[in-house]
Structure formats: C-alpha cells, structure tokens
Amino acid sequence: MPKSRQLDSSASPRFAQPATFMRLPHQTDLTGVDVAILGAPFDSGTSYRSGARLGPREIRSQSSLIRPYSFFQKVSPFDQLCVVDAGDIDVPPVSIERAYEAIRLGVARVLEAGAVPMVVGGDHSISLPCLRAVAAKHGPVALIQFDAHIDTWGDYFGGKYFHGSPFRRAIEEGLLKDGAYVQVGIRGPMYGEEADFAFQIAHRVTLIDIVQAKRDGIARTVDRIRELVDGPVYVTFDIDAVDPAYAPGTGTPEVGGFTSYEAQELVRGLAGLDVVGCDVVEVAPQFDGPGQITALLAANLMFELLCVIARR
Ligand code: MN
Ligand code: MN
Of 28, 79, 121, 163, which has the fewest beta carbons less than 10 angstroms from its beta carbon? Predict the structure, then answer.
C-alpha cells in the first residue's frame, strides 16, 4: 500500500494539472507526513545574478517526469514514506531578516509535525533559517554542503546576511556540530588563502575541493564524507556545485564542476545517514539552457535525496 500517492500517469498525462513536486498532493496539513517539500522562493540574498526566487516553480514543473522507483538505490520512496508538497513559504522579498523569520517558522512547522523538511530555494541564504529551525529541534547538526563556493564569508555591504555567509553565521550561532561540517566541490578563483580559509581552518571545516574529489573519484569522496559525519545531518545542495555545462541556470556559475551523473552518485552515497533536513538551492530558471536542464537536474537530485531518506 503506497503511503504517498502521485497522480497516476496512466490516467492523467504527466504534462497535465497544476505542477506539484513529482505530482504529489499539495497538502498543508502535515499530520502523518514523513517528508514535506517546501518552497522558499527568495533571492534577495544574491550577490551577482538574481532569479532563484523562480526556482521552486520551475523545479516542480520539471519534476513531473520523474518515475517513483530508484533502480540504483533499490527503493520506492513513496511506498516507505508519506511525502507531500506543502507549497511555498510566503517569503517577504524585501527584508532578509523578515524573510529569515518566515522561513524559520515554515521549517519549524514541518519539524513540529514530525516530518523531514526538504526545502527548495531560493538562493543559498535560505539555509541559515532552515538550520536555525533544525538545530532548535535536534541540537547542533552535522552539515554536508555541495557547492562551488565556501559560503563562510563575512559581512557584505555592511549586512550580515547574504548567500555568501549562511554557514559562517550557522557556526557563530552554534547550529553546527564541531568538526562535522564538510564542503564538497569547492573551486573557482578566490580572494586569498587568508580571506577565504582562515575562518574555515579555525572552525575545523573540512574542505574537499573539486580537484581532490575528481582525483579521488566519487566512491572515495563519499567515504571521506561519511567518515566525518554521524548523528543528525543536514544536507545542502547548491546547484552550482555542478558544472555550468550541465547546470547553467544559476546565479554565480563556476566552470570545472561535477557532472550531473557525479552529483547523483554523490547524493546516493549518503544513504544510511540520518538526514533530518535538506535543501536544494540556487536554481535560477532565466539562465537555464534548453530543456530546462538545471531545474530537471535539481528535481532529480531531490528525488535521490528522498530515496536516501527512505533508506534511513
Ligand atoms: Mn552556495
Ligand atoms: Mn555556490
């Protein structure tokens, strides 16, 4: 007996009906729900090209093609879990402090219902209020960040909050478990060893840059990640971890990244971890390529994350 029910594609064509994530029910009553998909359409934390506020809408649209069984993870997540599309948080677009409070409350509501939040950004600044809510429930968590960028920079134009600082703030606020924060896929021109990495070294952040990941291969990289985290873990996937040849629809693209396939394998490698919350961020549909390949990839990575949660 399936616990979540997608629209039946033999009765309703995949391109019909208002788009929800993977054609799951749109449901705001979270009683009995195991995983809630929650949009956070906010991009006022961007430093270069905005547009990720339109990510949730396009990712839902592209997700309508995804079938329910993972041959590679050997799981049908909707047989194991009750998953619903809880819609979007009505995030105020003009004040980042107010936006953060709306996002924190939205995610806390999911957690209070006993469900795992899977948040769709939005730019990467939204991960901070998600982590505030998650840490309020679980205490300091391990963090796995797939990203081209470290996102532990300091203030920007006099503001504490933007998409380059969420994880510095998370460390300062005590939301992360010491020594259990790993970044994967870091690359691109930087500011300097001191400017970029002094804070990270002081706070025992583990960095697996793109050269290490490609040289070691995906399997060894997954092993390294798994050696570092245990207990409750939050996974954040910035789509710019993937090469812009595969994921052009993003605000701060960096060449020389993961392939779509490597991204899938990295996420699949997390199976068995206690994922208590996750997000996929920085999909900006206006910069996407033909076929909306970035939004399609993001939707598929969310599916892989659902399979990981189903295998807990
Ligand atoms: Mn990021
Ligand atoms: Mn990034």
Answer: 28
Cβ contact 145:112 at 8 Å = no
**Whole-prediction pTM value?**
0.98
In a domain, 206, yes or no: yes
List pLDDT tens digits, range 62-97.
Answer: 999 999 999 999 999 999 999 999 999 999 999 999
CATH number of the domain residue 303 falls in: 3.40.800.10
Percentage, residues of the chain above pLDDT 90: 98
Paired tokens of 48? 């270069």
**CA 238 / ligand 1 centre spacing (Å):** 5
As for how many domains the chain has, the answer is 1
Q: Is 290 exposed, middle or buried (0-12, 13-18, 19+ CB in 10 A)?
A: exposed
Domain extent, residue 83, equals: 21-310
Please report, as a single letter, which amino acid is at residue 142: A
Average pLDDT of the segment spanning 17-33:
97
Does a structural domain hold residue 10? Answer: no
Distance of CA 152 from the midpoint of ligand 1 (Å):
9
Which of 297, 236, 291, 290 lies closest to 262 in space, CA to CA?
297
| Closest-approaching ligand to the CA atom of 149 | 2
- Planar angle of CA 132, 272, 185, nearest 5 degrees: 65
Which amino acid, residue 151? Answer: D
Name the token pair of 47: 């430093």
pLDDT, tens only, 184-236: 999 999 999 999 999 999 999 999 999 999 999 999 999 999 999 999 999 99
Residue 275 CA: distances (Å) to CA of 80, 195, 209:
15, 31, 23
User: How many whole angstroms from 240 Cα to the centroid of ligand 2?
Assistant: 5
